[in-house]
Design goal:
This protein has 277 residues and is an all-alpha fold. The protein has helices at 7-35, 53-66, 69-100, 106-116, 125-134, 141-145, 152-163, 167-175, 180-191, 193-208, 212-217, 226-235, 243-274. The protein is 71% helix and 0% strand. It is globular.
């Protein structure tokens, strides 16, 4: 029997959670307000800047004209979508095989996947960079995409989700003449949409905000990703002194991620909960 928490305990828990949420959200609130505040007034007022229509037009205009911010955003959309598509294309059959197929070495492969989760991204940087440089792929979309098409986290996440899928449905599909690949794509994938939504948020946020890898393989401003583009704005010209314009650029870059999470929040939570095993 599960006993309900006393009202005082629930109130205290909610108070702690609300306090933590305010602390977490405050920097974003300040960024949004500062993005609409005239440069001379950002640090002259109280704790929170006071945006104005003129300040908003000035700061967002500077962010969109001083650097090719829309180009950075387009690069982010292309690269993140390509990476996500290829990661799912690889992870779905791999996760299905590790969850539902019996073959020699399966425990060893699963152990390799778990071991891969422990390898920092910085470890294979040099050999991958050398390979891309010798192939003439630096400062191109392939250099931003190809190193990420295999995601061990995606393979493990989908494997955990597929383990809970009823074997009887798969046996019936095999009796109907489905191949294993057909089962993976026509039965398992539609059932795994919550896991796909969860992983999509993880993948897009990680690569949209990635500063390390684009800094390694790109030097051409036309190939920069959004986060690297903001850093480029910070260092280029008077960008370092334009706090309002920097905050405006940060709002523009962050807005798609916030919209993505809010629109897929229910599926994101469901995918993590259902995939537990």
């Amino acid at each position: 029997m599960i006993l309900a928490k006393p009202p005082v305990s629930r109130t205290a828990s909610h108070a702690v959670l609300l306090s933590g949420a305010i602390i977490m959200v405050f920097p974003f609130i300040w960024m949004v307000l500062a993005s609409g505040t005239p440069e001379s007034e950002i640090f002259n007022g109280g704790l929170l800047p006071v945006p104005t229509l003129a300040g908003t037009a000035q700061n967002y205009g500077a962010a969109l004209t001083a650097i090719p911010l829309l180009r950075f955003m387009a690069n982010g959309f292309v690269v993140c979508l390509a990476i996500l598509t290829l990661q799912i294309a690889v992870a779905i059959p791999c996760g299905y095989a590790l969850a539902k197929l019996s073959f020699p070495g399966r425990p060893l492969l699963l152990g390799a996947v778990l071991l891969g989760l422990l390898v920092p991204v910085q470890i294979p940087t040099i050999p991958i960079y050398v390979a891309l440089a010798k192939s003439g792929l630096l400062d191109t979309y392939p250099s931003l995409i190809l190193p990420w098409i295999i995601s061990v986290f995606a393979i493990f996440l989908f494997r955990q989700f597929f383990v809970t899928f009823p074997d009887e449905v798969l046996d019936a599909a095999r009796l109907d003449g489905f191949s294993e690949l057909s089962i993976a794509w026509r039965i398992m994938l539609p059932a795994a949409w919550p896991a796909v939504a969860s992983f999509s948020i993880f993948s897009i946020v990680a690569h949209w905000n990635d500063l390390y890898w684009p800094l390694v393989v790109t030097t051409n401003p036309d190939m920069m990703m959004p986060s690297l583009g903001i850093a480029y704005f910070r260092q280029a010209g008077d960008g370092g002194g334009q706090v309002g314009a920097l905050m405006a650029g940060g709002v523009i870059v962050t807005a798609p991620l916030a919209a993505l999470f809010l629109s897929m929040q229910r599926h994101f939570i469901r995918g993590l909960v259902v995939g537990r095993h």
